[in-house]
Fold each of these.
Amino acid sequence: MATVRATTAISVRGLQGGQALTEFLVVALALIPLFLLIPVIAKYQDVAHATQMAARYAAFDATVRNGNAAGGWKSESELANEIRRRFFGASDAPIKTGDVAGEFDAHRNLFWVKPDGQPLLENFSNVTVSFGPGGGSTHSAAFEPANDMTTFLLLAGGLGLNSRGIYTANVSVTLADLPAGLAFYRPFDEIGISMTRSASLLPDPWTAKNAVEVEERINSPGIFPSGGLASAADGVSVLVSIIDWPAGLSGPKLGQLEFWRDAVPKDRLKKN
């Protein structure tokens, strides 16, 4: 009886060991492809981040070169070449005017490679720059009226503001498919991944050389009727002083824009 029990116990342990091995192999079939795809997904995320940064660069460049500043717009081709070299090339690429990315490893981001060693970004021409929600090819297509554009246009003339609207820059990149023939790479071997990121802003600033110029722009009948208010200031001040005589309050500074000027105390000024 003891011999039979021992044989039965050994047989059960053997069956349990085979079951554990089978379960491990089944789980491995599902997890190993995921582990192999983690580096690929990390590369896609890195490209997506570079695309977003490139779109922001293109949009903010319009705050300096926007047709109203000295030098006018930066040409579309020059902007695209800068983006390809500085955001989709080697991470240590120098910032040089007129630099163009070349189709060789020294100019490529060597992290962005497929499992077979070939570049995910096959050609720098696969990085394109477009403008506006419709993806136009010129800066003029980048402007889109804001939702409150009607109100803005009413105020723009008196304040000396430009009224072109919101500027949108788009950057797109098309990546190569992963090598075919390996089941765990599907569908990345035929998906044709293309990423597009956009950035929008108002590039037209309103600057005035001093406080007096600010007051002159604001002090217009269509914007702020300070002239009419100033004529009534004396009468209102007398009325306030009578009503609030116990508190010794003075009347409001109606129409006196110069009262609100930012001033630096004299003891904070230093002669050159």
Amino acid sequence: MNDATSPTDRRLSKSALSRRAYDALKVLILDHEIAPGARLGIDELAALLGISQTPVREALARLEGDGLAERHANGRYHAAPLLDLATFDDLYAVRLLLEPPAAAAAAASVGAADLAALHRFVEDQRLAGTQGRPEIFAGYVAADAAFHETIAHASGNRLLADAVHHLHVHHRLGPLYRNRGVPDASDAIREHTSILAAIAAGEAAPAERLMRRHIERSRAALRPWVAAESSHMPQHLTARQGVPA
């Protein structure tokens, strides 16, 4: 019998290690086990996870894409800084400029594939855990992000979709749920269901209105948490100030 690992098996193994590193580091960042602004040393993380450096590098690149890590000019990675109140307000101001019109445009142009994906993401949110440990609620955050980004994609406006994606809204908000869970999950799922129904029916004005109300309610619910979190964090670790290189 030939026990040699095939190239396909090696690729699958590499992919699995990268996914394992990504999942583990995501939980550590969401839980503040890795503090906001902390350096993400590849050697140290590889030793912590018991894997080689390559899947750690790949995981850090994915986390950068999520807005949970930042890569500096010197090539070093840091955990994303804490979302301070001023940045939170700016983030939601931009959301209100982009996402309600995106929902309206999606209602006019959404295709079958995006509709199927939106239904799947709402169902994923229903099935996801919402308790206060990141390994439980991380799936909820991912489904929430995917729902909003898919609507932006369905708008047919590539630049708008890119802008919504690069805000990384839901991943940046994820650390707020640690030790709290997602207490507004039932509200968000109900609102997502209504937005999806309006988009599926081709009703642009209701889709825009419902998305605006959804974002405004989310802002009102989360803003006190951001204020409390940022008041206890050193100034140099907030998003407005950045992190040391």
Amino acid sequence: MKQRIRAAAKALLGRNAFPELNTDKKELIDFACERLGMNSFADLGAIWNVDGGYTFYAMERHRIKNAFTVDTDFTPPFLEKQKKHPGLKIIQGNFGDRSVLERICEVDGVFFFDTLLHQVRPDWDEILQMYARVAKHFLIFNQQYTNFSSTTRLLDLGTDAYFRNIPHSRDEEPYKSCFQNLEAIHPQHGRPYRDIHNIWQWGIVDTDLIRCVNSLGFRMQFYKNCGQFGQLTNVENHAFIFSRTRDAV
């Protein structure tokens, strides 16, 4: 009886649930839950522009009871909805800090949705190495660069080339403030403006991402080229799922 009720509820909350969310990211969650048995997760950098939407999509569509949402700031809509999910734990902080990682017990999945390209000190590949300790599956949706032969720190390109390769102008915040003095210390993050996660940092290429995750003992289970990102002809949205092999540490 419980299984029939669960199936009926899941049918009502179908793939068209949360229509404001990206369908490719929802597909990653569906695949991990339905094909890989994901029953717990940590959604990293989950709040900006979606108020933790993918956290709630996974918990409500797939009836997941145990999850973590990690971010530096939480919005009132998220906090209000979180009250309905007693199994959802909130961690406020930068998920690149090891103190944050230590608060996450082992989970089935870790979500990296639009976040890896922002990570510096530790860099994106070091972040993956950190979370390989607690994750069985990596769900990655990232803006991947096709005009570079290898992964490139975008700030190293110089100011003009930097802004040709990102979807923002130098006149909008936080870029306007950052480029007044990249070496100045950001008052909230306590690090130079050049190293904050609020700006685009990396042009990551597929070969480097796959090589990095493979070296950690994970193998690709799912891949999708989700098309060009905005007006940037050399940037594409790519979706991946990597799973830890049995002999991975």
Amino acid sequence: MRIGVDLGGSKIEIIVLGDDGDVLLRERVATPQGDYAATLAAVAGLVVAAAEKVGAGDTATPIGIGIPGAESRVTGLVKNANSTCLIGRPLKRDLEELLRREVRIANDANCFALSEAVDGAGAGASVVFGVILGTGVGGGIVIDGKVLTGANAIAGEWGHNPMPGEHHKDVCYCGRKGCIELFLSGPGMGADHRRSVGKLAGADFQAIEIAGHAANGDTQCETTLQRYEARLARALAQVINILDPDVIVLGGGLSNMDRLYQNVPRLWGEHIFSDRVATRLLKHRHGDSSGVRGAAWLWN
């Protein structure tokens, strides 16, 4: 039995998995906005209540936690978190003191990648690159069933590399210009559409609306999606040229556009340094449960 927690910006989710991966319990609560102490209390409260419900109250039950950031290898404090109240905090230490047991913490994209590598779309593959395409853009690397964290705890953070072949005047929240996230996140797609259509009707469409209108024959939305697919192909081609994964698994809200899985591999070949490309682009198997499942599998 193992416990996983997904500490997100808007919700905190907990899952209890049996040794065979079956879900024994799954619950979620709203994340206290901007309040570190309340966030600690919410996580601890969920864990204690869930453990009591399934009889996992002993301190031997492993707990993994996915966070929207990373733990500094130098200080042990949280860094690179878009939930800014976590930045500079000793989250692991504080939770271990509250729960009186060891916890393992990993980036939420790493947890997604691990979930899909263990028993998801990438099961059986040696090298899996997991991609989050949502409000932000993240990535995680799993090799032979283990998360690759890296010397700086930033392995897989492709969203904050420059988009190849593009320039962007806006500054990303990370302080850099031209980040892949500015182009491939949901808000990034919406902003690109607005720049393209100007004051015409539909300028304020969000990503899900753009996809829906494109499917119904809207040529402006279709053009926006084609730009998105070309950019995603170039960005993933860089990953393939460096990491050469067996499988790339997409997650996040934009991953539900089924057209990506046909169009992007058709486009990425011209950017990849190989006579053929065997890497498979796959849709997630566990949906929005992957992050919390991966947190539980941190003890695998």
